[in-house]
Amino acid sequence: MTDTTAAGATAGGPGASGRRVLIAADKFKGSLTAVEVAAHVAVGLRRAAPGVRTEALPVADGGDGTVDAAVAAGFERRTERVTGPLGEPVTAAYALRGDTAVVEMAEASGLRHLPRGRYAPLTAGTYGTGELLCAALDAGAATVVLGVGGSASTDGGAGMLSALGARFTDAHGTPLAPGGGPLARLAAADLSGLDPRLARTRFVLASDVDNPLTGPKGAAAVYGPQKGASPDDVAALDAALARYARVLAEAVGPRAAEYAAAPGAGAAGGVGYGALVGLGAAFRPGIEVMLDVLGFAAALERADLVITGEGSLDAQTLHGKAPAGVAAAARRRGVPVVAVCGALSLSAAELRGAGILGAYAIASLEPDRERCMADAGRLLERLAGQVAADFLL
Fold first, then answer.
1. Engineered SS bond to 361: which of 171, 272, 283, 344, CB 3.0-4.6 Å?
2. CA-closest candidate to residue 166, choices 96, 256, 92
3. Distance CA 316, CA 343 (A)
4. What's 226's DSSP letter?
5. Distance between CA 146 and CA 130 in Å, rounded?
6. Where are the beta strands (DSSP E) in the chain?
7. Is the distance from CB of 4 to CB of 386 less than 8 angstroms?
């Protein structure tokens, strides 16, 4: 554990019997889903403190695992066959409860659908994300939370909008091929054919990044290399996205140019930009959106302690990741928060600044990374026992 002065805050207080612990952690990427994290933490807590009462509320920040978190909170999982990032059919899920849908773009257009080692930075597209949005509309959704992250593409959301009725053509009037690369040849954009239901639907763009569309902090420069883009590819994609924004400005007016500089426009290869311009989406930090959707406030009212976490607690955690959002919300209600993780690189002061009283890392029990990943569940149960000893007993 990273020691803080609050580690013994419950000393001399009541025992664990009747204490209520809310487990609101994100996935440990590559080893445990958020649902599995919550289950292992609960096992470890109950083993060490049999009288403790636990409630699991797996969380996500809009990226991978967002649909799973919604389903764990009571949404219905719906599946569709849609177009994958390379044009092949894939099975993708979204979540529905009442007239609210949670759509995770990575389900349709994510890196997870690429064959191992086969990146397609210039040609991967987002058509399937548009198909998934259409399925949510067909199911009666009036509010759609679009969680973005883990994208295989840098096409500015052009594929997504094409699936919803937009047309993007070259100088000869020929529809562009999928991907960000072909946007360099974009001559005209026609959004008049967009599904009319879009105008009657509330879209929320949920993302943990606030990058603009282009430039040194844009979609291509910052995230292109993660999708296999070489330096030349990054330059080509950035120029193509700039052209895309100019052509859209000609088609729909100056707001398209304004949105290119807006926070979140560069999320998920520019899907954020496509959502802002074509869907009329409102951008919100992903974890804030998901906490609202999942009913975190009500669960927090029942909690004496919150356990959050993710695979790596590091500098990125402090900038919109799930544990920081959970801790901020809990701190506003005066509920103490501790964190569990695979690896920890934040100082005690940084943790306290984020509202986290202490952090417990699997790496402190098992320094070998491969063994940590392979045996994460059992090790996490041991960490939960330490949490119980420090905060509940």
1. 344
2. 256
3. 13
4. G
5. 11
6. 20-23, 53-56, 76-83, 89-97, 100-104, 143-147, 167-169, 188-190, 202-207, 282-285, 305-313, 337-344, 359-361
7. no
Q: Which residues of the chain have pLDDT under 70?
A: 1-17
Catalogue all structural domains in the chain, each as residue range(s) with its CATH number.
20-57+300-391 (3.40.50.10350), 66-287 (3.90.1510.10)
Record the tokens describing residue 116, joined without a space.
């191992």
**Could you report the per-residue pLDDT of 10-65, keeping only the tens digit for each?**
333 445 668 999 999 999 988 999 999 999 999 999 999 999 999 999 999 888 88
Q: Going by C-beta distance under 8 Å and a sequence separation of 6 or more, which residues neighbour residue 219?
A: 154, 156, 211, 213, 237, 241, 265, 266, 267, 268, 269, 270, 273
The one-character DSSP state at 174 is P
Note whether 113 and 152 are within 8 A (CB).
Answer: yes
Residues 280-317 have pLDDT tens digits of 999 999 999 999 999 999 999 999 999 999 999 999 89
Residue 196 CA neighbour count, 13 Å, CB half: 0
Q: Which is nearest to 341 in space by CA: 316, 329, 184?
A: 316
Type of residue numbered 125: G
Which two tokens mark 67?
A: 């649909």
Which helix or strand (DSSP H or E) is residue 322 part of?
A: helix 322-332
Instruction: Give yes or no for a contact between 62 and 347, defined as CB atoms under 8 angstroms apart.
Output: no
Q: What is the value of pTM for the model shown?
A: 0.89
